[in-house]
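for the record, two folds in this file. i put them one after another cuz i was lazy. first one right below, seq on top, structure tokens after. the second one comes after a little note so u can tell where it starts
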Amino acid sequence: MKAIIVDIETTGLNPLTERITCIGARINGSFFTRSNEDEKGMLSDFWEYVRNSEVNKLVGWNINEFDWKWLKIRSLINGVKISRYFSRKDRIDLMLILKTDRWQKLDTYAKLLLNREKTHDNPIELWKNKEIDKLSEYNRNDVELTYDIFQRCLDYGIIKDD
């Protein structure tokens, strides 16, 4: 399995009326982070990164209901061709895999499994205040936490490495 861990930040919850402000990804030790005014450019760069990496799994926290939908819809709106379609079987949504009786936040599992926590900044406020470096740092921290939880799930047989 060659997985890409992905996390995005947005200006809201509706991909039809809001936008992506930051895209972060990790493949093993290789990082990708983009945050700027040019959403189309960010998406183009991201899909180029995916194409050059030849990944076969998309991994994230709530990737099915949030990040993947946003990446598809915002790419379509911006006229950016996606380089790889990730069907449901090609996506690993850690939130669903680790779901108990209710939805859990990434921060909950980061504290429980890694003894670490999310950055407690508000990514929408960081964007509004043009604190792009802090937004990128916030996003990268989420990617790191997600990657480490993913690795732990692999190590303990929760996810099959095929």
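(here's the note) second protein begins now
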Amino acid sequence: MRTGTHILVLGPVAAYGQAGPIPVGGRVARTLLAALVISANRAVSCDALIDAVWGETPPPTVQTTLQSHVSKLRTVVGSGAIERINRSYRLVASCRQIDACEFERLVSDAELTLAQDPRTARATIAAGLDLWRGPPFGDLAGEPFCQLEARRLDELRLAAEEIALEADLDLQRHAEVIPGLQAAVSDQPYREHRWYLLMRALSEAGRRVEALRAHEELCATLGELGLRPTASLDELADDIAMGTVAGAGAC
């Protein structure tokens, strides 16, 4: 892909160049670009692209039509960025040229540095979350060809939010992290790691009773589904009750 060109899918599908936004085209062009991005640097068969764009109702001259759309798309990403390989096409791009790939890289970097350097991890994950402009793939998110990838990216975004909260907690930012965690468990009540962080944050802030109450609330929430918290959450609750977690001695 030409230098300075970036493809964005963490929100509506779009492209940017050194001079600003690059018009991608209508729904067909955006669908074709999204399908190639999902398998960036890997060949995607013409049949798979046709299915992604037109589903069960392709036009009569679909092969010619596909070639025409690919040709137009090359004006967006660069003439050499979409290679033809037998009956397939491949988008050639670096990770930094696709926002979803760059986001995934930043999440991985933040995970690796969180324990040793929470400040750097927090800055890294903030840079990743700043890449988001809305639901992945925008109005295409419900299309069969990208549903799984959209869900995967959404899950990764939730994990990134938890890394940010954990980094804030490691940096002793209890005053700001507790409200954020309370909102996080309200938004995603079945993500146990968020409850774990909330219990830890409340305990370390000297709010042991509230930490234990959060555990009870989680038990009730999961109990409605016939489930129990994982052992690590029960163990944390026991440690808080016994006052063995930092800051847990005060109520």
